[in-house]
Design a protein that fits this description.
about 70 residues, 3 strands, alpha+beta
Length: about 70
């Protein structure tokens, strides 16, 4: 009962994960789809987008993710 085993109580915690990607919007959509379907609970906290100065077809994506887990 309560989701704990052997008298131990589950302690959940989170970890901030910075992610930097370079690509097009389709690449970002593919990445976010993978985050959504991941078995580990991940929250996208922020996304910052800027255009590549050398190649206008590329974008730079800076994301902050929260990963939740039980210790």
């Amino acid at each position: 009962q309560g989701g704990s085993r052997g008298g131990e109580s589950a302690v959940s915690s989170s970890l901030t994960i910075p992610v930097q990607l370079v690509g097009g919007y389709e690449s970002l959509a593919t990445f976010l789809s993978g985050v959504e379907q991941n078995l580990r609970l991940l929250d996208v906290i922020s996304i910052s987008i800027s255009q590549d100065t050398n190649n206008s077809a590329l974008m730079h994506f800076d994301l902050q993710l929260f990963a939740y887990f039980v210790k």
